[in-house]
Write a structure and sequence with these properties.
Layout lengths: L4 H34 L2 H18 L3 H6 L4 H25 L3 H26 L11 H31 L5 H20 L12 H5 L4 H24 L4 H8 L4 H11 L1 H8 L1 H4 L5 H21 L3 H26 L4 H29 L11 H14 L12
Helix pairs in contact: 1-2, 1-6, 1-7, 2-5, 2-16, 4-5, 4-7, 5-16, 6-11, 6-12, 9-14, 9-16, 9-17, 10-11, 12-15, 14-15, 16-17
Length: 403
């Protein structure tokens, strides 16, 4: 029996909403909870170091993604369901095996699988493309506002739940909930999804280039490959451990900082909701150029002058990155056709994985209990990574566009 568009839309919005809650729980509760339990920030660092490896490995699926464009929906659904089975087993084991060593092994396996299925492979197509498994592109514009609003609500709810799980010491439950969200999302894609309409896929790069401005081409080639790895590196140095750092540096309870994060990110998240209106005053290209710079400055400000004000500023900045920057980035990248998009995203994916890995390695050294003042070196590392990112951007040598 055919599923109506209305029903399919409802399933898409619901499964995406639950998936976003699960992702938020994992990203907030697990690093904070494990770090507080071991009293060592380096435990949280590993929750991002291991995914960096998984994300890099996922980039080698590039040729498969290109060659199997017609079966990408069912392939991805099967991957999600396979990973979810393993994650459910791991998450329930974590509820019983609670020593630090056992927990470390189990969480390492869990986040590796999560990063492979949710962070790595989807970024080859780019995350926003998931809606194409349910709705035709022209139909998505009608529900884009609802989807964005629900994602904002999901992040808020997930962060609040994470705060309570952490403060009560039940943060391992977030692993179970995230694994179950994998099941729901995978089943929704497999049984209720539709294959992307081939008519909407442009046939060649020359046709694609006619609808991309020269300014956008410059952003794609010269800017995104530089700033995206830096965003992930800054997160791996500071943001990912913010509740732990605020407790250690500001003596601000981790529970309260997580709640603060949930509320102060809302304005930034909503900026993505109003991106079309904002772009009437500031072009998409200028947003892509400006927001990462501000975010890096806010991160440096927090590290150099830790205070409640700089903490709040950093949280607001992260919300703007999540809301406005990624929405603007998606709108530029998704103008590329399937083959070129996968090739381009592979380059960016490998760079962000490398930068996240390098930043995590520095973080392991900086946040050692034997080096309580290690955070003072973070600005120098950031500056070094900025220079390194600019010098190693070879995207100019890759012909994404016909001339």
């Amino acid at each position: 029996m055919a599923i109506s568009m209305r029903t399919r839309t409802f399933i898409f919005l619901t499964s995406s909403f639950l998936s976003a809650i699960g992702d938020t729980l994992l990203e907030v509760a697990v690093p904070a909870g494990f770090g507080l339990e071991t009293k060592d920030i380096r435990s949280a660092v590993l929750m991002w170091l291991i995914p960096a490896v998984a994300i890099y490995l996922s980039s080698f699926f590039k040729n498969i993604m290109i060659s199997r464009a017609n079966s990408i929906r069912t392939d991805y659904a099967k991957l999600l369901l396979s990973v979810s089975i393993l994650e459910i087993i791991i998450s329930f084991c974590s509820l019983e095996l609670r020593s630090s060593a056992q927990t470390l092994v189990l969480i390492t396996l869990f986040v590796f699988l999560y990063a492979l299925a949710k962070e790595g492979i989807p970024r080859l197509l780019y995350l926003v493309a998931v809606y194409r498994f349910f709705i035709e592109p022209e139909g998505y514009t009608k529900i884009a506002g609802k989807n964005t609003g629900l994602n904002i609500l999901a992040e808020f709810i997930g962060t609040v739940i994470a705060a309570f799980l952490v403060v009560r010491g039940h943060w391992r439950v977030s692993l179970v909930l995230d694994a179950l969200s994998f099941v729901v999302f995978g089943l929704a894609i497999y049984y209720c999804g539709i294959d992307p309409n081939k008519k909407n896929t442009l046939k060649n790069n020359e046709t694609e280039n006619n609808i991309i401005s020269e300014k956008s081409k410059s952003i794609i080639v010269n800017y995104i490959p530089v700033v995206v790895p830096l965003i992930f590196a800054v997160n791996a140095l500071v943001w990912n451990y913010l509740p732990l750092l605020s407790e250690q540096i500001l003596h601000f309870n981790a529970f309260h900082s997580i709640l603060l994060i949930s509320f102060l990110r809302i304005p930034g998240l909503f900026s993505g909701f109003f991106l079309s209106k904002i772009s009437k005053f500031i072009t998409i290209e200028h947003l892509i150029q400006t927001i990462p710079v501000l975010y890096i400055i806010f991160s440096l400000f927090f590290v150099l002058r830790p205070s409640f004000f700089s903490l709040s500023l950093l949280i607001i900045g992260n919300g703007i990155v999540s809301g406005a920057y990624w929405s603007a980035d998606y709108s530029i990248r998704n103008k590329l056709n399937h083959t070129i998009l996968v090739q381009y995203n592979t380059t960016v994916l490998r760079r962000l994985a490398i930068f996240q890995f390098i930043a995590c390695c520095f973080a392991v050294f900086l946040y050692s209990p034997e080096k309580p003042l290690g955070i003072i070196f973070v600005p120098f590392i950031m500056i070094g990574l900025i220079i390194f990112s600019i010098l190693t951007n070879h995207s100019k040598k890759i012909m994404y566009f016909n001339h």
